[in-house]
Amino acid sequence: MQPATDSVLITPTLEAARDAALVLAATPTRRKNQALEAVAASLRTSVAEILEANALDLAAGEANGLSTGMLDRLSLDLARIDALADAVLQIALLTDPVGVVVRGSSLPNGVKISQVRVPFGVVGVIYEARPNVTVDIAAIALKSGNAVVLRGGSAAENTNRVLVRLLQAAVDGVGLPAASVQTIDPFGRSGATELMQARGYVDVLIPRGSAGLIQAVVTQSKVPVIETGAGVVHIFLDESAIEQMAVDIVHNSKVQRPSVCNALETLLVHEAAADRLLPAVLAKLAASGVTIHGDDRVRALFPAAVPATDEDWGTEYMSLEVAVAVVDSLDDAIRHIRRYSTGHTESIITNDLVNAERFLAEVDSAAVMVNASTRFADGGEFGFGAEVGISTQKLHARGPMGLPELTSTKWIVRGSGQVRG
Amino acid sequence: MQPATDSVLITPTLEAARDAALVLAATPTRRKNQALEAVAASLRTSVAEILEANALDLAAGEANGLSTGMLDRLSLDLARIDALADAVLQIALLTDPVGVVVRGSSLPNGVKISQVRVPFGVVGVIYEARPNVTVDIAAIALKSGNAVVLRGGSAAENTNRVLVRLLQAAVDGVGLPAASVQTIDPFGRSGATELMQARGYVDVLIPRGSAGLIQAVVTQSKVPVIETGAGVVHIFLDESAIEQMAVDIVHNSKVQRPSVCNALETLLVHEAAADRLLPAVLAKLAASGVTIHGDDRVRALFPAAVPATDEDWGTEYMSLEVAVAVVDSLDDAIRHIRRYSTGHTESIITNDLVNAERFLAEVDSAAVMVNASTRFADGGEFGFGAEVGISTQKLHARGPMGLPELTSTKWIVRGSGQVRG
């Protein structure tokens, strides 16, 4: 396939990735696992070098006024590096998706067809200043037989440079191409722009990070994109919701880890249950330091709530804040969700079977739940093992993505001279 | 989900489509089949009206100097309308993909998860002047529970207007929203441009037509696209190929229907077999009126060949022409294919098991074949029933697409109060 791109800066990188991808596609599972084991070992023996580079990034970040949250995401320490190495070994234990036969049959004329999982080829990843993503996504790509071209945030440049060098050395050490893992960070923004244009070189592009980053990639890329991310997640407390369940699930969904995409952002309550449920549900949130943005009916029941503005609906706080509204019916709840949800995850708390089934059928999100915490919408919880991200698009993958979602398929057709009549 | 689009002209159409999609998603199979039966009946009783509109398009096409091929694709007659109605009834007989459980499990904490097929929602289709596509794709969309927004070629405007009106009346007649099938032809090019920007309204966009059309959509669209189409299809005659098999498969692949994407465009021959195979293979092609574009080694063996130029490699003739080259080895054949193929379909004719397996593994196309005609890369031949197109991208669908490829999935999560620890 002839690449259709005007790339100049990153063309040698992309060509090397394509060549590496050919080798990786034919590499048996055992060899890929050896590479992952070498990566984990190398991370553990290179802690000093990694932390030295990370200290440079942190110092620059502080000088540039990065927020505490961003500095935290940027920062590595011994425990975090150890956890990263463990995660890489976990990926080595997962089933290799490549070569799995999805389906197949014998045609009436004797031709045998089978659809088999194959790597995408070259996976591009554009992400922000989280150096753990560098190792994570490279390990996932390797296991699924893909070469990976990374574009990390400039704030993590020093750390990523060291990590990519370690990854390349480990891969090379087991006889696989070093170009299986490459970074285009040295080419800055121009490199990222070229990556988004590189049809024919890059088979799929995955943005990981803020809603702004994802929107930029999704709208600018000419390469097929898997959109991950933004979660304006809703819970609806139906008229028949059991109080303790409502209290516990809402609290867990909001508070257990507020900075992630499957955390609760908007709580809706049936007007016939608001009196009964809201005081206890909101009191428990408030006791954990959650700011409640409530509409008028919510504030009448829970005066500590601050007034919700139109902007609160549809806001992904990713912090200890929640928007709360009273709605007149299940229909109103579904309508509200349809209008403001990003299609990530929504849950209904109810004891009414008909309403539960209606919610599951009519809410069009990647994960729809009954009587469960929204925090379960997660590859790890679903048993996928690896954290590729959570797709909020409908094409190719929807919801938590495991290793198979980083593969394509091809049709293998075996004949004995058949022609079409 | 809030649409991110600057659409103005087609916004009412898209909003109506979105509302219709909600109804269709919850419509049982039987009702969708009734709609399809009504469409088929309406086509048969409206032949006069359809042909009258088609005559207007044909007259305008002739006045505008459309080629014979284009006029043929534009033209309907009684037999073609009858075949269209039959095809719609065939689609009614296919298994409904919506609601199929793809996989599921019980998590250790008792939460039950299942991944279920759901319609995309709103499918956009941009195509050229083939009125049969209007009916075909509308029927496929209906069966898979999707609303469809059509943008046909202006050359078929009158025919499409009548067809869409018939489709809408038939759908409405069984109590489904008429807006399940809509056209934006009245908005011309601006409508098509808006359709490609309509993120949040349109869930997937499928271009059908020439390579130029497909490239334009793929590079301009901000909506996720399934790329179908262009096939620079190769056959490699390996050293051990059985002569009669080579002659028959090459002839069938090129001649049986030269204007389609799975027809042979480039023939490669191992140099050690060129003397033995080429004269008979090319003589049979030439006897069917095929023009042979040969390299020097081909012309030495078959003087009637015209000299191939660099442009011939990579050309999708879609006519009775073929490019032919002698290569030194299987490796050279694979290299040539890697460089010039569009990743649609390639076949090796061989009696050597190792070479067959290498070709299947190393050629990265949607369909890779051993000893079979490339014409088998087809949804009908694969037993899918409906002709949605053949995807040449790796995301979501690859190769012939059936009804399930017009669906997404969602995760249904059923708990009994579980929270994440």
UniProtKB/TrEMBL annotation, chains A, B:
Record carries keyword Membrane: no
Domain of life: Bacteria
Alphabetic keyword roster: Amino-acid biosynthesis, Cytoplasm, NADP, Oxidoreductase, Proline biosynthesis
Keyword Metal-binding appears in the UniProt entry: no
Pathway assigned in UniProt: Amino-acid biosynthesis; L-proline biosynthesis; L-glutamate 5-semialdehyde from L-glutamate: step 2/2
One GO cellular component term: cytoplasm
Residue ranges annotated for the Aldehyde dehydrogenase domain, each copy included: 12-287
One GO molecular-function entry: NADP binding
GO biological process: L-proline biosynthetic process
Places the protein is found: Cytoplasm
Pfam families per the UniProt record, alphabetical: Aldedh
Catalytic function, reaction form: L-glutamate 5-semialdehyde + phosphate + NADP(+) = L-glutamyl 5-phosphate + NADPH + H(+)
E.C. code: 1.2.1.41
Function: Catalyzes the NADPH-dependent reduction of L-glutamate 5-phosphate into L-glutamate 5-semialdehyde and phosphate. The product spontaneously undergoes cyclization to form 1-pyrroline-5-carboxylate.
NCBIfam families membership: PRK00197.1, proA
Family: Belongs to the gamma-glutamyl phosphate reductase family.
Name of the protein this chain belongs to: Gamma-glutamyl phosphate reductase
Lineage, highest ranks first: Bacteria, Bacillati, Actinomycetota, Actinomycetes, Micrococcales
